[in-house]
Design brief:
The complex is a heterodimer of chains A (162) and B (665).
Chain A (H helix, E strand, L loop, with lengths): L1 H15 L9 H9 L18 H15 L4 H12 L14 H31 L11 H19 L4
Chain B lengths: L7 H25 L2 H30 L6 H6 L6 H6 L5 H22 L8 H20 L25 H16 L1 H12 L6 H4 L2 H26 L9 H26 L3 H24 L14 H21 L16 H33 L7 H21 L10 H24 L5 H32 L3 H11 L1 H21 L5 E7 L4 E4 L2 E12 L3 E12 L2 E6 L2 E5 L4 E5 L1 E4 L3 E10 L5 E9 L2 H18 L3 H7 L14
Antiparallel strand pairs in B: 1-10, 2-3, 3-4, 4-5, 4-6, 6-7, 8-9, 9-10
Helix pairs in contact in B: 1-2, 1-6, 2-5, 2-6, 5-6, 5-7, 6-8, 7-10, 8-12, 10-11, 10-20, 11-12, 11-14, 12-13, 14-15, 15-17, 16-17, 17-18, 17-19, 18-19, 19-20
Classes of the chains: A mainly alpha (162), B alpha+beta (665).
Chain lengths: 162, 665
Amino acid sequence: MKALVLGALVMAALLAGATGASAESPQDAANDISAQVMSPFCPGVTLGECPSQEAVDLRNRIATWAGRGDSRATIMNRLVAQYGPQVRAAPPKSGTGLAAWAAPAVAVLAGASVLLWLLVRWSRARASGAGEPEITEITGEDRARLDAELASWRAGREGADT
Amino acid sequence: MRSLAGLGRPSLVAALLLALVALGFYIAGALRQRDDLTAAGRRASYSAAGFVGLATLALVSALYAHDFSLAYVTDYSSRSLSGGYMLSALWGGMEGSLLFWTLLLTVFTAVAVATASGRAARLVAGAGATLSGIAAFFILLLLAPANPFVRLAQTPADGHGLNPLLQSPGMLIHPPLLYTGFVGFSIPFAFAISALVGKRLNDAWFTSTRRWTLFAWSALSIGIVLGGAWAYTELGWGGYWAWDPVENASFLPWLTATAYLHSVVIQEKRRMLKVWNVSLIVLTYVLAVFGTFLTRSGILSSIHTFSEGPVGKWFLPFLGIMLVASLAVIVWRLDSLKSEHTLDSLLSRESTFLAQNILLVAAAFTILWGTIYPIIAETFTGQRVSVGPPFFDSVFIPIALAIVVLMGIGPLISWRRMSKERLLAMARPPVIAGAVVAGVLAATGLRSLGALLAFALCAFTAVAILGEFARGSSGARRRDATGWLPALATTIARNRRRYGGYIVHLGVVLVVIGIAGSAWRTERQAVVKPGDAMRVGAYTLTYANFTEDATPEKLIDKADIRVTRGGSYVTTLSPQRNFHFAQQQPQSEVAIRSTPVDDLYLVITSIDKKGTAALRAFINPLTWWIWAGAVVMASGMGVLLTERAGARAAAAAPVPQRQPVTVAK
């Protein structure tokens, strides 16, 4: 148990320490920004994924802007001014764009709530014995019917698969 | 080869009539409980499949005979198109791919209704009616808005040729596998609907179609991976998954089908989650058709727009009717779908399956939401927005990593209940493995939290699964007094469902490792001329030679790039920039050196007559493991699909109840 907790703590500490970015070159910055904007030249793909020459030229321009010290926000604003808000590859996390981001979290929370509700319900059913099969006596007629159903079930099971 | 195009439309008319006749017989057979009427429906289904097969043969013959009097043949083939790719022209365009879809549907229907036996035979009438109705819709599409046999007023001398992107070996397999997956789900869907309508809600509908579900899921899984491989080797952007709407559309039914394959085990073993399981299979099939709708409607901007067409408005009502009718039938039968048991403990395999199901469905919802959000946002706000990889990566990766954790906990935990102490003892080696991997990677400088977490969790899950193999093999080794390998083989062979599933999970772990490797991805681009050199990561790329060549199809500009590392020669890669005459379109051919450590990926985005080229170079670490993982997954699927009927029944045997029913004597 101690080893397990220690292992988990070590893992958590290492993961928590895994932050911070080293200094990046203008081309690395351009690559990163290119992954955050949709290509104005290829439908449905980011600038980084677009194989056209126009995309290459735009990536080079972004690298030039990054090289002269423009911040990411400045470069992004410039791209939005030139190509429209849809050039951002993800909706903003504010205003109407918030709905895009909130829905997945709501879905996971709703799913977790349903799971929790089921667990509580089942746990109560177990406590009251309602979830367990009823212990009951059956008549001779029921017994004969049960035997016939079981025989039919066994016969059917042998060739049940398509 | 002689063109049989003249047979195409009459065959489709005959197929439509036969599908409607089959529908009528099946409904009459179900209502009157008469096997002879159902048998007549079966025969009509066989005939319908035969006529759709004839129509497909007619189109294939027209392609191979260069019958350019057909608009489809002119639009998607040319005289210079090589033989293999001529076949891929069948699914290269909207009309042909819908014909291929319909062929699969009618053939699968014929096989399913012919082979259903035992208790499943009682579901044939309802399932046949459902499948015949769907087939009639698709044949109607082929006769009206998506007719592949439309004649041109004047026959051109040559065709426009197949899109160069589709002229790839992967395209011979990727679309047929995706369609096999999509269409394959129609069989469990139809049997579920039959069980609901006929109120035969025992386990026959899902046990009898288990192999169909696995088959469809396997085909879709391999199809999706091959799609990624195609994107990687053909599209020239150095990646394999772009969260494109059409990619997402293939992923959505895969996620819900994966959830279904797991949750149906709980129904088999515990008679629980009945509403959930029928809902999942309905959702899976609706999403499969939705995928086709997305591809064909052109409603969303996509790199797959080469096959969009005018059938979108036909699909929407069809989808709506299918969804509403299915949900109505489920609500109608809610009383018969009550769980017979309850969950015994939070610490049980059932709970991990439930949690995993919720995560898979949440992932499907998330991706669906992101895919259609641009339409919703534009409808309600009038603003055009994009939802691309940054969004999907942010919302999907945490869910995916949680699923990886559950894949690791699953093998450690038993059905019904387990003590906390026992679970913690079982979890010790995997947790230590995860911590060690995270420590080593952090010490070597990896600073991406997501990647570190992914590698640590993959180690945790892999050790948990391998431990299960070791425990099973150890028992078999003692019992049979044999070596480790024969014991492993015996262990897998004796419980194919369990170990086949674990092999698939190991494959998923490898795929996740391959994806997480992108944390070390490096990209460089430069304009180079022969003799120039550039560096990318530890590699030096020297532009050694430029050559021009031509074939009847294309002009080829090739750059030979000499690759060295630390002064030592590694290889020579030759990316190309080609110009296709038929389409008047340039196309890049990438060059890749792939190893388990990293891929060196080169693509030319432009090149002039002197050979001056815009060269993009990527180092994609660990990508090789994605394809290796897919092979491992495929082998696990093979193990699952070869499970024998008797073994299936044993694997599906309910878990004994704590308080069994006692019968008074």
